[in-house]
Task: structure prediction
Amino acid sequence: MVFLLKNILYLMPLLFGIGFVGPVFTALIQLTGWSPPWGLSPLLFGFGLGGAWGLYAQWRGSWIAWRVR
Result:
């Protein structure tokens, strides 16, 4: 149980990026009336952006690039 919980928490930035940031991007795309490139739906494009940002946060250890050290 502890092993499973540690692995889930380790992937939390990626899961947050897909589960929260992705739908926020989708809502912003729809609110502005912008159409994503390559004929993608706004939801798929939002999940892609959120997932990419989540992977970046997972790799970097921070959601923002200018983290003060």
